[in-house]
Design a protein that fits this description.
GO cellular component, one term: plasma membrane
Subcellular location: Cell membrane; Membrane
GO molecular function, one term: proton-transporting ATP synthase activity, rotational mechanism
Main location: membrane
CATH superfamily of the largest domain: N-terminal domain of the delta subunit of the F1F0-ATP synthase
Strand content: 5-15%
CATH topology of the largest domain: Peroxidase, domain 1
Membrane topology: Peripheral membrane protein
Order of helices and strands: HHHHHHEHEEEH
Number of strands: 4
Length: 177
């Protein structure tokens, strides 16, 4: 687990709690995503890292740009006060995971050598929904390097059922002998 993840977790949980209490998970999710994109811009990141940064001005600019409400502005102010604005991308990702869990959804990315057809995607969604007991939002990414099979990214779990993965394991086993 990275240091950024450890630092971002309490902020993500706090943002989720405030958003849930306000009944505005979608609004906070959108504001966090926009703020995350803003602080990820190279010029903005350099400006936020400057020692002469006026934190109140930075918070005001970001909150105005993303259309955040007063509570979101206070959340940004706490981040700025603790020099945590650069963690917004990680906070946003964690907020999304908390939101998915609360809504009984799970985003799953399936990387396969060829695009899944509708029947394969439907069967994959059904099997994953049964395994995780959640509604599955499935995205398929094509990567010829997997050779065959698929690699499934579900939350923080990776299931490697690819031919490339099997060949890599076989190679590692043979190299140990």
């Amino acid at each position: 687990m990275s240091n950024e993840t450890t630092l971002a977790r309490p902020y993500a949980k706090a943002a989720f709690g405030v958003a849930k209490d306000a009944g505005d998970l979608a609004g906070w999710g959108a504001a966090l995503a926009a703020a995350s994109a803003a602080v990820s811009e190279p010029k903005m990141a350099a400006w936020l890292g400057a020692p002469s940064l006026d934190r109140a001005k930075a918070v005001g600019m970001i909150n105005d740009a993303v259309g955040g409400d007063e509570k979101f502005g206070r959340f940004l102010a706490v981040l700025a006060e603790n020099d945590r604005l650069p963690l917004l991308p990680e906070i946003t990702a964690m907020f999304g995971q908390l939101r998915e869990a609360a809504e009984g959804r799970l985003e799953v990315k399936v990387v396969s050598a060829v695009a899944l057809d509708d029947d394969q995607a439907a069967r994959m969604k059904t099997a994953l929904a049964k395994r995780y007991d959640r509604e599955i939002d499935l995205a398929n990414e094509v990567d010829a390097s997997v050779l065959g099979g698929a690699v499934i990214y579900a939350g923080d779990e990776v299931i490697d059922g690819s031919l490339k993965g099997r060949l890599d394991k076989l190679s590692a086993t043979l190299n140990r002998v």
